[in-house]
Amino acid sequence: MKKTLIYIIVAAVLIGLGAYKIVDNKKKQEAEVKEVAKQVDKINVNVITVSRADINTDYSANGTFIPKQETKQSADIAGRVVSVFVKEGSRVSAGQVLATIKKDAIEVDVTQAQNNLQNAIIDNQRYENAFKTGGVTKQQLDNSRLQLKNAQAAVRAQGVKINDTSVRAGISGTINKKMVEPGAVVSTGTALFEIVNINSLKLSVLVDESQVGRIQLGQEVDINVNVLPEEKFSGRITFIAPKSDASLNFPVEIEVQNRGNLKAGMYATAVFKTNHGAETQNMLTVPAEAFVNGVSSGQLFIVNNGTAKLIKVTTGKVYGDKVQILSGLNGGEQVITSGQINLDNGSKINIVK
Asked: Which one, 48, 306, 315, 327, has the greatest CB density within 10 A?
């Protein structure tokens, strides 16, 4: 009997302990669920602490080098190419003969024109003498003089044709392409050579509308060439487009003297110095991405006791991805830079480290 009673007591104690453990575990689970619910209710955000700093206002733009001069030298007269005197890579001077076109037929025409001129000179002389004695009329003399002028013009025209059989370089530079060989028949206007002058090059870049007002013609620009990282280059602005493209960017050209290692088509970065001195020193700024609905709204979220507080600030100038703050912040505040789209004033937040 006593043993049975003991068993009953032990069983009751064990059951009591089990029930207590279940209740305790349930309380812990409920606490954990509440904590998780609190975290789930919070919105993850990134923040930056507002501080004062000097702003680097240098502006960079990427582009490619283009020759200062380039031309496609074409044939001025139709015919068969007799000789080609240059090859790709040849250095040429303006006016240098690059190729010749067959001129046999033109030389025959030149001879005929010269004969006609001699006859016209003789005829005109007779009319001049006859007119002095009244042997011919003034009209006949005028016709004779006209025939002489036409004969002289015909000789000059044939001389031009003879000259056109020599294809000459229009600019000094390097033969980049040769598109003709001896024996080829060409037409007037057929491109025979491509000549480029890379003694100086132009770096063509696009400058944003917010920056174009800060640069000027003649300004010196530092240039970094991707394939020549160890070398330093500089140039001067020679052209600023008066009109932007569809993306509100302005084409700008910078002339660079070639030391022999630059090539047209190379990729480079122009660094425009736009230092504003004291204007950009000790400036309070925030990232442009922090603004709600764009910089023009002037609205930001700051951290306020674990919640997001929407405030209004007065903005100044924009320097790249930094926006000057004139009032509304004093420095030291934590400004939310991402996650704003999910926030309302007073939303609970979780700062992501």
From this structure: 315
Say how far apart CA 25 and CA 160 lie, in whole Å. Answer: 109
Give tens-digit pLDDT for 4-59.
656 566 556 566 565 556 556 655 665 554 444 444 578 999 999 998 887 777 78
Q: Give the CA angle between residues 265, 255, 245 to the nearest 5°.
A: 70
Residue 228 sits in the same domain as residue 289:
no
The residue from 139, 164, 189 where one domain ends is 164
Reading the block at residue 259, the tokens are: 């030391």
pTM of the model: 0.55
In this structure, is residue 287 part of a structural domain?
yes
What whole-number distance in Å separates Cα of residue 148 and Cα of residue 347?
100
Dihedral of the alpha carbons of 257, 263, 264, 268, in degrees to the nearest 10: -80
Res 242: pLDDT: 93
Residue 26 phi, psi (nearest 5): -65, -40
How confident is the model over 79-130, as pLDDT tens digits?
Answer: 899 999 999 999 999 999 999 988 877 777 778 888 888 988 998 898 888 8
Residue 348: HSE in the Cβ half-sphere, 13 Å Cα cutoff = 6
Domain that holds residue 308: 44-55+279-351
Q: What is the pLDDT of residues 218-264, one digit of tens each?
A: 999 999 998 988 888 999 999 999 999 888 899 999 999 887 789 89
Sign of CA dihedral 30, 31, 35, 38: positive
Distance between CA 236 and CA 234 in Å, rounded? 7
Angle formed by the axes of helices 104-132 and 138-164, to 10°?
160
For residue 218, give the DSSP letter: T
Same domain for 268 and 335, yes or no, is no
Least Cα distance to 174 among 93, 88, 91, 261 occurs for 91
- Tell whether 268 and 203 lie within a shared domain: yes
- Domain-embedded: residue 157: yes
